[in-house]
Amino acid sequence: MKIMAIDYGDAHTGVAVSDRTLTLCGFSTVVTAYRPEAVIEKLLPLIAEHEVTELVLGHPLNMNGSRGPRAEKAEGFAEQLRAATGLPVTLWDERRSTVEAHNIMQFNGKRAKERKKTVDAVAASLMLEGYLTYKKRNG
Question: Which residues of the chain are modeled with pLDDT < 50?
Fold first, then answer.
């Protein structure tokens, strides 16, 4: 059993996959595609290759917790993922994950141009870490 976290974006989608023990991130990458169908097409082989059994999709709520256009877009994408994969999809509050990813990378000396290439994968890894911690605490 492995869990895949997805930080869905307009052009770049971050992907992180847990290890088999559901303890930490074992793989991460960025998928470049503009249409939701194209993103799913690129995710399907990763799901099969890594034997993923559950998906966690970033749910970009507004800072006050309300749903905006980005959250609605993620909800629609979640439905497409469920239909295409047959896997359970959990929407996970991703407020500040990208900001935290930028901060981590900047702290580690990555310039803005370097951060742009991998920030979505780091954001997905942070989401995955949070979700794995939640699952451990709540069963």
Answer: none
